[in-house]
Design brief:
With 112 residues, the protein is an alpha+beta fold. It has helices at residues 3-24, 29-38, 46-58, 82-111; strands at 27-28, 62-67, 75-80.
C-alpha cells in the first residue's frame, strides 16, 4: 500500500481507533502503538500518537494518570471517560455507514 495514502487514511481514523482500543482496557502509549500495529495500521510513531492522546485528554474523552512501572520507569495510563464512550459509540455507527458506502463503490469497481 502507498505509504502516503495510508498516512492520509490514518489521520482520519486514528482518534477513533485509539478510543476503540481504550474501550477494551486502559493502556499506555507504547502499548497502544503496538496494538495499532498488530491490527495492521503500521508503525505509529510517538510523535503521531501523543498529540492524539493529548487532544483526547483535553476534550475530556480520555483521562490519564502516572503509575510506577514494575520493572521500569513510570508510565502514563489512559482510559476512556463516559463522554469518550458516548463519542466512540456514535462515531462507530457513523464509521459503519461511511465505510459501507465506500465499500459498495469499491466492490462495484472490483466486480468489473
Amino acid at each position: 500500500m502507498d505509504s502516503e495514502r495510508r498516512s492520509q487514511w490514518l489521520r482520519g481514523v486514528l482518534d477513533l481507533c485509539v478510543l476503540g482500543l481504550l474501550a477494551r482496557r486502559e493502556s499506555y502509549g507504547y502499548e497502544l502503538t503496538q496494538s495499532l500495529q498488530a491490527v495492521g495500521l503500521g508503525a505509529i510513531q510517538g510523535g503521531t500518537l501523543y498529540p492524539v492522546l493529548l487532544r483526547l485528554q483535553r476534550t475530556g474523552l480520555v483521562t490519564a494518570d502516572w503509575r510506577e512501572g514494575g520493572s521500569g520507569p513510570a508510565r502514563k495510563y489512559y482510559r476512556l471517560t463516559p463522554a469518550g464512550d458516548q463519542v466512540l459509540r456514535q462515531s462507530a455507527a457513523d464509521w459503519d455507514a461511511f465505510a459501507g458506502g465506500v465499500g459498495a463503490i469499491l466492490r462495484e469497481v472490483a466486480a468489473r
